[in-house]
Amino acid sequence: MSTSHVLLGLLGAGSKHGYELKRAHDERLPRSRPLAYGQVYATLGRLLRDGLVTATGQDRDAGPERTTYALTDDGRAALDQWLGKVEPPMPHVTSALFTKVVVALLDADVDRAQAYLIAQHRAHTDRLRELTAVKTAPKATLDDIVAADYAIAHLDADLRWLHTTLSRVADWHREVHS
Asked: For site-directed labelling of 171, which of 2, 91, 116, 177 has its Cα 20 to 30 A away?
């Protein structure tokens, strides 16, 4: 995720100060890691330096003075270019889950690798239940539902892989150690 582009996108809807940008990020991307205020302001500093945003004023709503930022024409162009670029599917397997299974097969016996796969399957299933509860909660927002759907789809793919790999682990272990 590009924090710069997310902030540009949030400014596309209108001027905001850093606190509003952080709040909007955390609300609109509810299953993402929340942004730290320092990250928001450091990113705004770079966007300002690069001419992608401009400071449009100062607010003081019963608190500290806050600078309001707006998207510039160059910022709009950078955002449009980023949004128009299709994300390529990942060319390499870069999953800690996959790596741990391979290392378990290299370093351990079949039983230990199977035990790891079963434990991981259980953890994924528990997380799937948590996310299902999030999306079916009475106060779930569409942001919550869409984010949960995304995470559920990825967990489902991992669960299918775990199940398939569990059925192959003994043969895989023999191949690795032959």
From this structure: 91
Residue 26's alpha-carbon distances to 20, 30, 33, 134, in angstroms, are 10, 5, 8, 16
Query: What pTM does this model have?
Result: 0.67
Residue 93: the pLDDT is: 67
Q: What share of the chain is helix, strand, coil (3-state, %, to 5)?
A: 65, 10, 25
54-66 pLDDT per residue, tens: 999 887 766 677 8
Counting every residue, how long is the chain? 178
Average pLDDT over residues 145-161: 91
Q: Strand 66-71 to strand 53-59: parallel, antiparallel, or no bridges (unpaired)?
A: antiparallel
CA distance 17 to 40: 10
